[in-house]
Amino acid sequence: MNEHLGNNTLGVVTAPGTVCIKRVLPGPVERVWAYLTESDKRRKWLARGPISSFVGGDVELTFHHSELSQDPVPEEYKKYEGHTNKGKVTRYDPPHILSYTWPDGPNEPSEVTFELAALGTDTQLTITHTRLASRNSMVSVAAGWHVHLAVLIAHMEGRQVKDFWENHSRIEPEYQQLIGN
Question: Domain range holding 76?
Answer without folding.
Answer: 12-179
